[in-house]
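Lab meeting minutes (informal)
Scribe: AK
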Amino acid sequence: MKKLLVEKSEGIAELIDRMLAVQDDEILLVIPKHAALAKSASNFRLLKREADSAEKRVMVESPDETVVSLAEENGLDIYRPAAEKPKSAPEGGTEVSDIVLKAEEHTDVGRRRKRGASIRLTVHEEREEEPESSEGAAEEAEEEAPEEHGANRNFFSERFFKSRTAPIEPLPDEEEESASRNNDEERGSGGGALKWIIGAVAVLAIAFYLTTSVFGHAKVTINFTKTPWSYQANFIADKNASAIDPTTNLIPAQVFTTDKNITQVFPATGQSGTVGVKAQGTITIYNTYGPAQDLVASTRFVTPDGKIFRLANDVTVPAKPGSITAPVVADQPGPAYNMGPVPKLTIPGFQKIPAKYAGFYGTIASGTTGGFIGTRPTATAADIANAKSKTTAILQADLQSGLAASYPNNFKILDGAMTTQITKIVVSTSTDASGNFSVFGDATLSAIGFDEAAFKAYLLSVAQSTEASSTFSSLTVSYGSVHADFAKGQVSFALTAQGALEPIFSPADFAASIAGKSIADARSTVAALPQLSNGTISVWPVWLWNMPGDAGKIQVVSN
C-alpha cells in the first residue's frame, strides 16, 4: 500500500491529482492536524468519489479527530496505528495494537469498497508477555488469512495484527444498512421541505424589504391660511435712477432702441404709357492714390466704350489702399445700359491730375440691369400713399418683434412706453418689367422698460412690513395712466396690486426635516406649522411606520 503525506495547506484538487497518479490500488493518506482539507466535508466526499471511480481503496490516518470524523462520515476507511508503549511498561515489555477486519468484511471488502460502504476497524490494546517482532506477526497473519483474499490478504499481512483477546465489533448487516439508508432518505425529504420553507420566507423577506425600503414613498399635502393683501400707488421709472426709492416711488428704468430698413415692391395700377427706365448696378471704387476721397452723388464713371454711370449716393473712399461699394445708375434710360461685368471704369473729373485719375477707378462685377424704354403701368398717387402706409406698418411690426428679442424677459415695457420714428420713406415710381414700383423705408423704435421681477420683490417687502415671514401665494398687478417722456427717458404709471400672503415655506427643507421620523412625529411636525389650515400624510405601502429616510422619496405639496 502506498503512503501519501498530506501537506497542511494542500487543496483537494492537488491531493486528488496526486492520488490518481499513484499506481497502487491501496493508498494510505497521512493527514496532519489543522489541515486545509478539514475545513469542509465536501473535500472528503470528493476524495471518496474519485477513489471509487479509480477503483482505489483509500485509508486515512490522522491525529486530528475532526479529520477522522469527516473521513468516516463520508465512507473512507480509518487507519489507526498501534498505540505507543506506556511509560509504566516494564523494560523489555512490548505493547501492540491488534486491528483486524471482521471475517465477513474481510472476504467482501472489494464489493463494499465498490459501493462506498465504510469498513469498521476495532482497536484492542494489550500487554504481551514476550516481545514479538513485526515480521513474526506478519507471518502469523499471513498464515491465518484465507488464500482467496488475494491482494487484500497481502495488505493485511503487512500492516495489521490479528485480534488476540478482545472481540471484534460487529458491523450492521445488509438489512440494517438498507434501513439506515431509508431513514437518511426520509430525513433528506424532510430537510428539503424545510429548505423550501426557509427559501420562501427569505423571498418574502426580500420582497418586504424592497417594497418598504426601496419603493416606499410618502406624500405630504399642506394648506396654509391665506391673508388677502392689496396696494395702490403711483410710480416713475427713470433711466437715471439706480435703485428703488420708497420715499419718492422712483424705480430704475432702461431705454431700448432698435433700427430697421426695408424695401417693399407694390404693383402700379395707373394707365400704361411710354416710360424710360435707367439701368442700375453696384460699383466697387478703389483708391490706390493716397488719402481718403469724398465723392458726391451723381459722380460720373465711364466705361471703356464711353457709357456713363453715376453714383446714386454720396460716398467716402477710404485711404490707400482702400475700397468701397456703392449703387450706380445709368446716365440714360434704355436697354443699351444693361451690361455684363465691367473690369474698369474711370472718373473723368480727375483727368486734370493724372496720378489721381489713374489712382481712382471702379469695377462693376455683376453687371447692370433694368434699362428699359417702352410702355408700362404707372404708379398713381393712391398707389404711392398705400405703399407708404404699408411699408410703415411693416417696419413697426418688424421693429416690435425685434425689440422683444433684444431685452431680458424680466423687463416690462408698458403700452404707451414705446414709439417708432420713421426716418426715411423713398418711393421709386419707375416700374419694372412686371409693372411694380418700390418703396424704401428706414425707422427707429424706442421703448422705456423696468425690471418687473425686482419691482415685485419691492412690493413683497412692502407687504412684509405688516405681515412678517410671509410671501405671496398669488399676486396680480395692473398698470394704468401710462405716460412716457422719451427725451428724459422716463415713464410714469399708476399701480394696482392684489394678492394673498402665506407663511414662507420650503417643501424641500420640510421633507428633509421629517425624513426618517415616525408617522406620528411627522404628523406632529405638520400640526406645529404656523397658519396651518389643514394637512395630510399618505404613505405607500400602508404598513410603513416611519417616513422614508430619503427626503427625495417624500413629496411635499403646499397650497
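Next up, CB showed the second protein from the same session:
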Amino acid sequence: MLNGPPLKWGNGIRVVSLFSGGGGLDLGFHQAGFETALATDLDGQSCETMKTNKPRYLPESATVLKADIRLLDKRLLPTNVDLVIGGPPCQAFSAFGRRAGGAAGRLDDRGTLFKAFADLIAHLSPKAFVFENVRGILATNKGEDWSAVRKEFAKIGYTLSYKLLDACDYGIPQHRERLFLVGHSAEIEFLFPAPIFGPDSESGLPHTTIGRAIHDLQQPAALLATLGLTGGKYAGLLGEVPRGGNYLHFTAQRGYPNPVFAYRSRFSDFLYKADPEKPLKTIIASPGKYSGPFHWDGRTFSIEEYRRIQGFPDDYNFTGTRAQVVSQIGNSVSPFVAFFMAAAVARQVFGRASVPVKLLEPNTKLSFDSRKSSQAKKTREQHVKLAAGREASSRNWFNVESYAATVHPFSPAGHHKFDNVTVSVEGTSIKMLVQADHRGDQYLTARLRFYGHQPDLFTTEKDVVLDLRVELLGKEPHAIQTMWNAIDDLVIRSSSFHSLFEIYGHFTEPHPIFVIEEFIRHSDHPVAVFAAHAADFANCSRYFNRKHLIKMFGDVFGTRDFAKLAEILRRYRFDIRCHETNVAIPNNLYMVAYPFTLPSRRQMNFSVKPTAKPSH
C-alpha cells in the first residue's frame, strides 16, 4: 500500500504540514495522492529526513522548512491551501509527564503550540485540518486542556470531530492509541476510517504480529553484536524475562521467589520483551537503557526493524544518529493510519466519492479499552491464585542473619561520617544502630515492618518476615538521611531488591511491601518534624497547601518563602515537588513523593525556581 506510487484520491488537494517530524503523517497523505506544498518542523534533522525522501515519498516541489511556527514569517507560507495536517509535540500531555508529578499540559510551552497551530490555520483558511496527539490530552488538568483546544479551533470557524484510533487496527504490528481531530467546513458529521484488522474490523482479520512483520529482515552478525543489552545492574535480568513479559516477572505477584521489584514500580516498558506472536506495545521516542520493546532474542531492535514496526517503507531514509532516528520514528504518526485518515478526508471533505474506505458509524465505540480492562481483571485473578498457593516458607526475602553478622562502614556523600552500622537479630526483629561522630541524645526511632508480600494480599502475622527497629544517635539533621541510607543499604545487601524504591513502588502508584509502624521524634528540629510527617504513607503523593510547610518551619531557616524552604528540604534529600519543580502542580500546593529521603547515589536536582514574592 505505501510502497507503490501514490494513488490519485487526493490529486489537486494542496497540503501544509506542520510539526512534520520524520514525515509519517505526510507520507500517509502523500500515498493517498495529496500534494504537499510545505512541510515544516523545528528539528533540523527531521527536516533533513524529509528532504532526503523527495521525490519518492514527498513531492519534489514541496518546500521543507526548519522553523518554529510561533515565529514563522507568514509571507513564507503558500497560498491556495486546502488542508493543514500536524501533530504538535505531545510531551506536555504524555504519561511520562504524569510520572514526573503531573502532565503539564498547557502549563508547558509545548502544551500551547496548538494555539500557534490554530493561528496558522486561521491565516491559511483551508477547507479542513487534521490534528493528531496522544490520548493523554483528553485528561490533563482535569480535561481543561482538551476543552481549551476545542474552543480554540471552534473559535476560528470549524466543525470538529475527534476519535481515539489504534494504529494496530490499520496494519502495523504495534498498539499505538492516538487522538485524531478533524476540523472542517463541510455540512456533514465526519466519520473516521473503520479498522481493517482486529476484533473491531468487519473482516475479523487478526492484528499483524511483530514476528510476522519482521521475519524476512536479515540482520548482519556485526550489527546484532552491537544491539545487546550490556552493563548496568538490570542488564542481566533481560534474559530471564519471558516473551511478552517485563520487569513484573521479577515481582511477588508473578510468583518470583526472590523479588527484585515492587509491583507497578516501573513503566510497563521497563525490561519489556516482545512476543513474536503478538503486536508490540507502543514504542517511544527516547527510550532509557532498560526501556523496551526488546527483541525476543534479548537485544534491542535495529533501525530496519523499527521502521517496519511503525509502518514506514523499507526504503524510507531516516538521517542522523541512531538516537535521532529512533526519536523521529517514535514521535511520528504511523503512515498506515495516516493513509486511512487521508482516504476518509478525501471522500468526505473533498467529495472524492470513489475512494474505497469503510467508515465507522457515528458514536461507534471501539473495544481496545474494554479489552485492556478484561486483561487487567484476569491478571488480578492470576495474582490472587498465585498468592493463595504459595507456602509461607518461600516468603523470606531478606537474609538478615548474614547482614547482621557484619559491621558496615557507612559514609553518606557530603555529610558527617558514620563510624558503623551494627545490626542484631532476634527472631523476625532487627535492631539497627547507626553510630555517628557527634554523639548525643537519641534523635529519633523508626520502626518498620517488612512483608513477605504485598499487605493487601497477605495480612496475617506469619507473612511478616522482618520487623525492624532503628535507633539513630546524633543531633545532626542530616542524620535522618543517614538513617534511610542505612536502611536502603540493608535492603540491598540482604535481599534481591536494588533499593528502597523497589519495595515501595513509584510514588504515583505505590505498592509498598513494608509499613512504618512507629516514627518517634526525640527532637523538635523542623527537619525531624518533616521527616515524621513524610514517614506517614498517607502524607505521600498528597497535595498540601504551601502554608502547611511554612507553618511547620516558621522562621527557623531565616525565610518564610515557600520556594526557598522547598529547596532546603530538597538539600536534605526529601523529594519535594511543587510548581517550581513541575509546572503541572498548582502554584499554591506541594507534595512529598516518598516517605524516605533519596539515597546519596541517586541524582537529584536541588534547584527550585524562586517565587515572584514570598509565599505566606
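CB comment: Residues 524-616 form one domain.
No objections, moving on.
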